What we know:
two-stranded parallel sheet, 5 helices, globular
Amino acid sequence: MGILTAYADVGGFYAAMGINFLVVDYRGYGWSGGTPTVSAMMADSHAVFAFVKKWLKEKGFSGKQIVMGRSLGSACALELAAHHEAEIDGLVIESAWFRSMMRITTRFFIMAVRPTCLV
């Protein structure tokens, strides 16, 4: 299963709401080359965030920026939220690790929502 197939459920939902949605393969995952390491994944998340911010500004896009992390990507989303708190308008964490999440909730309020509740 490719990364786009893995996000077809939420991607379609976001597209129907007129929300731009970017899916990223981190180094060493999916179609990306390189070796997967935690430090590379965190560095990649910052590089992608900087690129997206610059691209959106150059293209004249505005609006809220919400970071989403699913499964392993939830660590990257939390990393970005911790370092770019003033630049991020929302944080969605899906399928994260429970014990790690319990440690993080002392800093961030995280709410689990079923997609059907958003309609």
